[in-house]
Write a structure and sequence with these properties.
The protein is mostly helical and 88 residues long. It is built from five helices and no strands. Helix 4 crosses helix 5. 5% of the residues are buried.
Length: 88
Amino acid sequence: MNYINADAILPEELLKEIQRHIQGGLVYIPKPKEAHQKWGEKSGSRAVVRERNDQIRRLFAAGVTVHELTERFFLSIDSIKKIVYSKK
């Protein structure tokens, strides 16, 4: 997060209004909700995990056991069960 001096970017009227509420403090201005990205969307991790989970479900449906899936994907038994028994 970058620090930017408000008087360098805000109109004078807006700066004065903000100064009525806080002087000399730090104010965090969040992104609009529509600009917020969920975990892993920017890096692509979300898609990788989704594809891995789909592969685990396909293998389980084809008869691969939970124990075999834990060894193959290095996940706990509980994690594999959550993936294969979740509604998708």
